[in-house]
Specification:
Layout (H helix, E strand, L loop, with lengths): L4 H32 L17 E5 L16 E9 L7 E11 L5 H31 L7
Antiparallel strand pairs: 1-2, 2-3
Helix pairs in contact: 1-2
Length: about 140
């Protein structure tokens, strides 16, 4: 049985609406973690976090198949990657938060650090989508 155009539109609208709700909830939780993990000390303004090209993690996995699994002998640390087009060395890692040897960090706290990175990346992906959508608008109406 084929879906009507109206059914497809309803499904798409529901999906977009659920993404917006998820995004708002994500931002609320991300701000809470930003304070709780003391990132506010290095980046006093929350929105300035998104000036970084990316945020990464040392000491625990961010892969979906072993998310949060610790890397023995490493240090748990949140790293921001900045990018400077005119500098000789284009990218630079900046420590936003350092928590010590990953084996000594409380598991619940380590999980919050991992959650912060995933929530940051989720929001950053929306910002990237909006950026490219705006760029595409420079080409005018989508060609048929």
């Amino acid at each position: 049985m084929k879906n009507s155009a109206l059914d497809r539109l309803k499904n798409l609208t529901n999906k977009i609406s659920s993404y917006e709700v998820a995004r708002k909830e994500n931002l609320t939780l991300l701000k809470k973690l930003y304070v709780e993990l003391d990132i506010v000390k290095k980046v006093p303004e929350f929105n300035d976090l998104f000036q970084y090209k990316a945020v990464n993690l040392s000491g625990a996995s961010l892969l979906s198949e072993n998310l949060g699994e610790i890397k023995e002998g490493k240090y748990l640390q949140i790293l921001a990657i900045s990018y400077d087009k005119v500098a000789q060395k284009k990218s630079k890692n900046i420590s936003l938060a350092y928590y010590g040897r990953v084996e000594k960090v409380d598991t619940a706290f380590k999980d919050k650090v991992v959650e912060f990175i995933i929530r940051y990346r989720f929001e950053k992906s929306f910002m990237t989508l909006e950026h490219y959508y705006t760029m595409l608008n420079q080409f005018g109406k989508v060609r048929e």
